[in-house]
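help with this:

***
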Amino acid sequence: MIEFSQSNNEALIMSDWRNNPRTGKSTFMPLLNDIDARLKLGETLKQIYESFKDSKALEMSYPQFTRYVKKYCNGGQNVPTPKPKEKLKVNTQVNASEDTPDENPHQITDDLLSQYMEVCYRQERIAKRAIEKGVPLEQIKEWNAPNKVRLGTLITNYEVKN
């Protein structure tokens, strides 16, 4: 590819990257122990970078230098590490309250269920829920809900209020 200089329109041939390979890591790695020791002495990254830049021992940008330091120095302290996943523990202990069946003060009998189903749009699930929540039969009749969805909402609201 040919690139023209704006000053005198002479043709410049762009160099091939294979002729000038990257040198960042290869110049950084021999200095790794020195950089690590200077960091432990308390020097800042900027001070270390400037000293290597002045002595021409390092030919890279400051952001690249800091990336290499974070990656290879400090024992990886600046590199975020994922948290180890906690294993779920299985509770093998059985509580005494779990062994005893729940005593429901509102026992559902066939007769009671049939009475509730008459006012609960013949929906057994809604009727059982109304009995379990302790909603009186008269209250359901008083609500005069237009449909089963509204009746279910009213039963939920009754439970929240009481």
User: Anything to note?
Assistant: Residues 110-161 form one domain. The beta strands are 2-4, 11-13. The chain has nine helices and two strands.
